[in-house]
Amino acid sequence: MSAEIQAARLAAEAVPASRKRRALKVVEPLCLIAVPLMMGVMALTKMPNFAVVSAVLVTLSMVPFFMDFEVSHLRARDLMPVVVMSALCVAGRLVFAPLPAIKPVTAIVIVTALSFGRQTGFLTGALAMLVSNIFFGQGPWTPWQMYSYGLIGYLTGTFADKGWVSGNRFIYVYGFVASYFYGAIMDTWTLLGLVQPWTLATVLITYGNGALYNLGHAVGTVAFLIPIARTWPRKFERVKLKYGLGGGSRGPVASAAEDAASPSDADGPAAT
């Protein structure tokens, strides 16, 4: 009888939780879109204390993602992809600390999102930067790093769901572009939050100073993707099937992962 009561209670709790998740799924992309709009409005109005205010607002924009994770009533095993992959990002960032631009974080976030979906990809990227900055230093830049890497994970998972990700070459090019995307967000925040006044000269200097770093970041990401994009997704699929993660479905995300893992398409896009 107690088991039946517990089952009924869980079923009753699941109804409002599912409604919350549906609402959060609508809110999440809106929050991501609101961030660049917010930056533009704050820049045009020349809001004082841009760095601090924008850090608070971008932090609030990430709240729905963590709320979604909280109301999902996940099993302990469902948390492991985020925990393990975030830890790998942190470890990789620490190991390659002597090389500021060369880090495996972007590559790990991309492969994680391909295999486990956009929510896991977002949380992996965001948590990796939050935790690793305990060692590298926290500041108003931390929420923006969390947002940038989270956005890369979210977009990667979304593109995989749409079936737009296939073939090793596409993965490499995507990783190269994603690295510059991260750099563009952080350089823009640096310009708006830390540089005064905003003139053509300061704009060119700010983006020029980040050019070499962004190039190294992009090249490093591709270098890390070459080995892990071929092997990790295949292993992730086995883990998902063995432990029932993500239902073990053979959906678009799984297909994209298999395409990236297949050695047969090493010299070109996978056949569709």
Concise account of the structure shown:
The protein has 272 residues and is mainly α.
Show the helix and strand layout.
Elements: H1 2-44, H2 50-70, H3 76-95, H4 105-116, H5 118-136, H6 142-161, H7 168-194, H8 200-243, H9 252-261
Helix pairs in contact: 1-2, 2-6, 2-7, 3-4, 3-5, 4-5, 4-6, 4-8, 4-9, 5-6, 6-7, 7-8, 8-9
Distance between the termini: 52 Å
Average residue pLDDT: 82
Rg from C-alpha positions? 20 Å
| Broad shape | globular
* Helix/strand class: mainly alpha
How much of the polypeptide forms β-strand, as a percent range? under 5%
Number of helices: 9
Question: How would you sum up the major sheet?
Answer: none
Q: SSE string, helix = H, strand = E?
A: HHHHHHHHH
Low-confidence parts:
5-15, 247-254, 256-272
- Percent of residues in helices comes to over 70%
**Tally of extended strands?**
0
Describe it for me?
The protein is mainly α and 272 residues long. It is 79% helix and 0% strand. The longest helix has 44 residues, at 200-243. Helix 4 packs across helix 8.
Question: Key terms for this structure?
Answer:
272 residues, mainly alpha, 9 helices, globular, disordered C terminus
